[in-house]
Fold each of these.
Amino acid sequence: MEKKTIRTIIIILAVLIQVSFLAVVFPQYNVPSIALALVVSWTIISGFQQIFPWIILLGFFLDIVSFQTVGINIILLVMISYFVSFFSRRFLLEHRGWGTLIIVFFIIISTFFYYSVNVFIADSENALANISLGNVGIQTIVNLILFLIIYFPLKKIEEFLAFYDRTVKIK
Amino acid sequence: MSKNFFSTKLFKVILVIAVFGLLIFSNPYNLFNPVRSIFFGVTYPFQKSFYFLSYKINRFNDFVSSIGELKRDNEKLTRENQKLSAENAMLRDMKKENAVLREQLDLAPREELELRSALVTSQDAHGFGNWLTINKGTRDGIEKGMPVIVSDGILIGRIEEAHSGRSKVILITNPQSSVNAVVSDTDAKGIIRGEFGLGLILDMVLQTDIIQEGNEVVTSGIGENTPRGLLVGKIQEVRSSEDRLFQQAVITPLVKFSKLRVVFVVK
């Protein structure tokens, strides 16, 4: 129960911070995506199977708050999570020295995919002309920084929740 | 298909894409409006706090980056102040004359705008500057289509969706936005459209009309809820459209949308 409550609170806070804080503080077209950083972090820490329903909830709330058609962010974030899970199981575990490079690769691909789809949704007629590599580059860097800020505390929280679960089961 | 396939990650992804793809395709947009209203109602205090904090950070950033420009800005503002004072005096004169003439010709008075103030609580999540939300909705008399301005009578957008306690404002820089406009100095008519990455374009201006850099562009009030005379921006650059049939102008907005805190809905 505590695990569900804490994860729900994290999701709601992430969504509110995205629209009411990051979108205001950061310059236009260079706003980091906390949802993306959260999905990548959570998938690496807890695995796709465990985090799958929570990604749907995150995507749902993001669609609600950003007035998009419900389902768009759900599909995008689930696909990103699957992509991260697919490659992380093969590389992060088997080739530990490449871990950092692989994570950078995840962030680059995920950012490009997420940004491109959202640009297409915002202005489909001129989507190709509007996808600027400069903006994608800056977004990748800020997403990477945000990932680093989120990953370690989130890992601690998930470890605590796992420990708490084991303690409760033993009792 | 083996039973194991249904428990694989790939199956779950396919299922999500199928179910939510169908939902997107059928687009029952209003189905989730009650959920939106409840969510915004519950999270409003947090949204307000986060927005207030981000606004303060923005102000601080602006202050730090502008320290070097303060002296230059001060001189520029002093000159502009003097020019505006002179203009103001002339306009007061013209207003008196206008009132006298209206009385003599028995004309109706210029429309007084009924305004409803609102706080901005969130902005476009992806940073494209396409929309923002305000803390007023249908229970405050807000309806879809109402124009939204800032205090100086500068148009920033219109209400696209109104829920009970929250409304979404589509900004004029949104590619889906279009406003009938007129160049105040030359009476050249056109349509203001948002353009991704550029901001605002005044389009469909006849080649025979005169438009110049520095001209102010206002709403023409033709055929929509938007009243006449709301300022939109100043012309920054003039060019021909791709097909060369019309002129186009790039408009500099007078407002930084990311720094808005209070707006007014024109009822």
Amino acid sequence: MNLRIGAFGRQESAAIVLLATFFSGCFAVDSRALYENGNASYLVETVSVIQALLLFEIVIWSLRVRGGNDLSALIGRSRLKAALTIPLILALIIAAMQPLQSFLLTITQYVFVESKHATVCLYLLPCLFLLTALGAETLVRTARILLPILLLSIVAALVSGIGQYRIYRIYPIPIGEPLRIFTQAGSAEMRTVPPLLALLCIGEGTQDRLAMRSSGRIGAIAGGLLCAAALFALSMTFPYSQLKGMPTPFYRMLVEVRAENPTLRLDRAVLFLWLCGAILTSAYYLYAACVLFCKTFGVRDSRPAALCLSGIAVTLILVLYYDAETTVAILRSLYRDAWMLIAVPIPLILLNLKRRKPKCAVSV
Amino acid sequence: MKEAIRNLFRFDAPYRRFELIETESLGTPSFFAHRKAKKTKLVKEHGMLSKSLEANRKRLSELFRAGVNTDLILRPVVIGGRSNALVVSMNGMADEKQIADFILRPAFQVQADGVSASAMPAFFREHALSMHETELTSARNDVICAIAEGRTAILFDGAGEAILCDTRGFVSRPVGEPQNEMTILGPKEAFTENIRTNITLLRRILKRPDFVCEFRDSGGTNGTKLVLAYLDGTVNPALLAELKRRLDSIATDTRLTVGRIEQLIEDFTYLPLPQMLKTERPDRAASAVLDGRIALLVEGCPLAGVLPITIGTLMESGEDIDMRQPVGTIVRVIRMLGAILSTYLPAYFLALALHHPGQLSSEILETVIASRAMVFLPLWVEMIFLLLVFQLVREAGLRVPGSIGHAIGIIGGLLLGQAAVSANIVSTVVLIIVALTGLGNFTIPDYSAQVATAYYRIFLCIAATLGGLLGITVTGLCATAVMCTVKSFGVPFFAPFSPVTRHGEHLLFRTRIRNRAGVSDWTNPERRRA
């Protein structure tokens, strides 16, 4: 099996969970639904993270009882393996689409105003595929490398916006309606559960169930707190009526800061820095979906699945953005150059025929 | 002349031009090239020495092509007036004075009454030979290698054994100052081409009984000597075993150097960044050995390869540790900023100027527009052109001897730049950015990393031209991910930062010297294991 899970430590796995929780929670928000009845996004996020952690603990407990290091070990004993796995894979693909779609909207709305959605997608697809194909070890290590820079940029964004914060903007708080908060938190599970679900899928790489549990807890709690802080800052920056319909309000906050202080012209650089986090998050979910798929259906290599799932995710983003007719038109225009897709692999296959045997390690 | 003119008009003139590829036995050419010839393996001598001196003499003469190869000296002697022997050495490689004083003179003076022919080698070695390093062998290949190395072999009639005496006395360069890794506070010695001298330089620093210099024959046909220098009991045995396995798998006809060996045994061949540190400083190699790593010395190469490495190793200078801690930290931060600036500044400027001009202040934008008013090249072509010119000047400066090399740098930097601005080929703003980039690039201490960064920068510029900040982001993220995948002999490239290890020297901040007790744990050395 060449699933490229590898082996990694607690800090690295906590880093990817943290980033995924933050980027899913802060940048994949359905702002219309979230801010419909007031400004309680930070409460909703906190409750949602707690709910996700409870689910995570239940799965970890089940793993301890049944024995196994990852989710597929748990599913593997079920007779309805495929029936259980496919919804999870779909959920991960949808979770992967969310932050990317949100950034695509922001980029086409604020940065490349005249560009088409599909053009921007063309840049993202190779990167998404490469990250997904390189495997879990690469993903978590890249997350660990980028984490300090991303945290610094997020904290700097929160601090630089202090001048804009007005406490009266957080009203109305639907604190008197706990049921609504719980309901919203339940629907926000699609943002807070996938980071932990993906960790469960690649649990084999954490080398130990306890390590997986602690890194999941630390990552989810830290990411949830950071996300709640960011959403609270947003609530103090914009009234909830404005927040409804903003694609990435967190970036919008930076733009407001820049409007106040024109010497700080780093908003776009920061946006693209955050895009790294979003791509990493999406690749993490897609890779987890690949692993789940490969383990369930006995596929030995994760790379073909990585290519397929990255393609599916990007195509679905396009379908959701354009109507079906436009997407079909885009795909038809691609047919003209589709011969390349057939021509390109042929030399690769021929080269592969004379491939060297991989070096194997020596045990001492 | 007359012959040439006549041949020009004579269509039946015989084909007399000397050609190798077209006429020799490579077979029918295919569309792209001639068929690849089958590799012939050089058969090593595996036999034992014969008891007959004449047979041994004939075989050696045959192997060394003594008929044409006049360097081989075969000196017959009669030891103790009764035993025929042959002293074999290579002219120029062996010290004649040592042979005359310590081999030939005792051979004529020794009394060997009652010693049988088969016991003569041992008797001569113990009672007559006044040399320090001698060895008895019966393998023919050992004799051949020893002669080729400059040692002297004494072969005896009636004994299937030979004595190998260390008489190496060839000329070699004395220990000089490092040319590429100059320091102000550190030592001023550099490795030479002589492997023995290099070992001595290391041993002078590492005065420990557990410091091992393991000699090995490199793979391939040339049989170059390699030395693995490490601390036994400290180095990770799995790392050592894996390195030996990879060295054993080398099969090449080329001359081996540290750089070539690196390429033959590394995991990621297409990565531009090096996976082994090549240093000319013995103190740096010794520090790495003390840290539980392995230094690889190669005969004829004035560099030591240190492995495994991380990104921190490539960004470290030899004298970092000699500086005071705050100063060392500041220097490291400046170096890191220089590296980041040199990598991303041209691409960032291109992205802002071409795709996001709103991110530049109106003053800067006006300056850029004014400086480019008469320049006819597009901005991205201008940037890439200047970056390539910078590489050109740099390569030219490196390849020509000392003072002329400096002059080329000055001519390239000042005159060419000034002339290019005057001729409206480039703008001053772009020139300043390329100059800053060049300066930043020189802050990267490792030469291979400098070159890798220089070409990655051009790639980034193309990405920035195509996609602005989006292009830079995507390319940068892919490059980071690939670097996170890379492992130098099993150690991830970003260790000890990612994966985190307990005893990690920080990439940016230099730790206090008193906190650096013991060995770094990112190679999982034996001494630090629980």
